[in-house]
Amino acid sequence: MASSLRLSYARRSIPMSGRYDVIVIGSGFGGSVTACRLAERGKRVLVLERGRRWEPDQYPRHPGDAWFWSMRNPRKQNGWIDFRIWDTMSVAQGAGVGGGSLIYANIVVDAKPEVYETGWPKEISYEEMRPYYDRVAQMMNVQEVPANQRPHRFRLMQEAAEKAGHGARFRPLPLGVTFDPEWTYDRPDAFNENQSKRWVNAQGVEQGTCIHCGHCDLGCRVRAKNTLDVNYIPWAEKHGAEVRPLHQALRITPGDWGRGYRVDFERFDGATPRLGYEEAERVIVAAGSLGSTELLLRCRDQYQTLPRLSPALGYNWSSNGDFLTPAVYTDREIEPTRGPTITSAIDFLDGSQDGHRFFIEDGGFPSLLGMAMESEQRTGKGKKNERRFDLLVAAMQQIVRVSNYPFNRVMPWFAQGVDAGDGRLYLGRPRFAPWRRELMLDWRIARSQAVIEAIVKMHLELSKVTGGVPRVPPTWTLLKNLVTPHPLGGCNMADSPHRGVVDHTGEVFNYPGLYVADGAVVPRAIGINPSKTIAALAERMAELMK
Ligand SMILES: Cc1cc2nc3c(=O)[nH]c(=O)nc-3n(C[C@H](O)[C@H](O)[C@H](O)COP(=O)(O)OP(=O)(O)OC[C@H]3O[C@@H](n4cnc5c(N)ncnc54)[C@H](O)[C@@H]3O)c2cc1C
Ligand code: SF4
């Protein structure tokens, strides 16, 4: 957050309108679900979202497009990916109306019942969560890749599981994607957008069917992805909710009318005044694991507007044990840039591998490099690219260079695991700019190393039995650095304020009417893609809010 914003909000902000019943901060899985359900019940809901409202023709595709979100300069840089790099861990997140659903790989899957056996408040169990999972599945319209459209990666996963003696653990995954049963890979011009069929979903929004273009993480141009901005959010708006993109919440203060809260924000849409605030009886913080934790840390430690927040704030953060091992196949096509990004899994969450719990998935990636080269040809050399975009392209090139094979021969073996969940988010002062206070992560690999090693071992085995040559990234072998798209925790749910920040309903201890409803409340690694669990928790919280 810009240092100028440390100036008195009271002096520089103005109220933007009358009071709302509820202000929701963030429009990802937690924010969209709570906004939708409360608006359905007749509450006057305002959603503040720091990112843009993206339209399909605006998704980033070329160097120079709006790829990145910058915490240091969001007014100028409010693009697609919020990618944070710390010493031992990097975290990728979405930014925009729809949050992580815009960028996600479409997997909408329940956590395993065993995950609920430890670490949760006593009211939360799998049985308790089941109806809420069902509600999410219905809204996200989940389905598997049809049998006639399974990409090469799916078949490789199945073959690997069978050859390694784990055939019974293989399964197709439920995806938030709409497929046309008649589409096939061998039809002429199969990946052309004109092959997508238009249809209207249950919320009245026009979508398309999947053409297996592989761009899921970069935004689905034909709207086959069932993202939150085509279901929960428009449904909330139909029930009167107001969504304000490019509005970043900066501070929460208890209302000076004795109840409720005031939310100060900055807007990046060019309108004036740049700073404003709104007030409501209830505030739901749903800015994601990093965003919600940072906002509450600032309110407790920097602005001291919420000084009685739990001392557990920031603790027990988890990366959900994510890991990727590319493997090269000399004798078969893999085509990782075709088909939905992830399609299937081999499930080791039962602890059968020396007690380690993990979930292997196929990983695809968009043909970013091809697009970058295409764009380079179009725009000519010398066009200045965003530095992190060049880094992404360089990382892709690295895979090709190391393997000496084109992308279509590389299998990205992906996985998530139950790590120790012992990271800590806090506000620190960067070495190069000690006058700033920034969100920092203290992550140590010691207690999570064994599960990552178990994942790597399984990736090597699955590659070997199918004739692949795995390339374990040196960022792991040499540095023990990890990257995660699945941050969890920071405002953990618990039975008491000594152990967590919110109770089982999401209400913040010591602050009635203030809630956290997103990945920040998940109190432990779940070892599986988390969006459905986050959305199901939010469904439950919305139902329990009076
Ligand atoms: C590349 C990628 C692929 C993924 N694939 C999958 C998958 O296939 N399946 C799966 O289950 N999960 C997947 N995930 C993870 C999934 O996206 C997250 O777990 C999920 O989005 C978290 O939901 P949330 O509600 O906690 O937060 P988010 O969805 O991150 O939403 C938080 C929102 O709050 C906004 N925000 C943050 N701070 C503020 C502020 N101060 N003021 C206003 N707004 C703010 C953000 O811009 C964002 O829109 C993937 C993630 C990535 C990065
Ligand atoms: S593969 Fe392409 S069409 Fe299918 S969901 Fe992903 S982005 Fe959309």
Low-pLDDT stretches are: 1-12
The CA-CA distance between the termini, in Å, is 33 Å
Derived from helix and strand composition plus strand pairing, the structural class reads alpha/beta
From the alpha carbons, calculate the radius of gyration and give it in angstroms.
22 Å
Mean pLDDT: 92
Q: Give the proportion of residues in helices.
A: 10-25%
Helix-strand layout with pairing:
Layout lengths: L8 H4 L1 E2 L4 E6 L3 H12 L4 E4 L32 E5 L3 E6 L31 H15 L11 H12 L6 E3 L26 E2 L5 E2 L24 H7 L3 E3 L2 E8 L6 E7 L7 E11 L2 H15 L20 E6 L15 E10 L2 E7 L5 H12 L7 H17 L6 E8 L6 E5 L9 E5 L6 H17 L3 E2 L3 H4 L4 E3 L29 E3 L14 H14 L2
Parallel strand pairs: 1-12, 2-3, 2-12, 3-9, 5-20, 12-21
Antiparallel strand pairs: 4-5, 6-14, 7-8, 10-11, 11-12, 13-16, 13-19, 14-15, 15-16, 17-18
Helix pairs in contact: 2-5, 2-11, 3-11
The protein binds flavin-adenine dinucleotide and iron/sulfur cluster.
Summed up, what is this model?
This protein has helices spanning 9-12, 29-40, 126-140, 152-163, 232-238, 288-302, 368-379, 387-403, 449-465, 474-477, 531-544; strands at residues 14-15, 20-25, 45-48, 81-85, 89-94, 170-172, 199-200, 206-207, 242-244, 247-254, 261-267, 275-285, 323-328, 344-353, 356-362, 410-417, 424-428, 438-442, 469-470, 482-484, 514-516. With 546 residues, it is of the alpha/beta class.
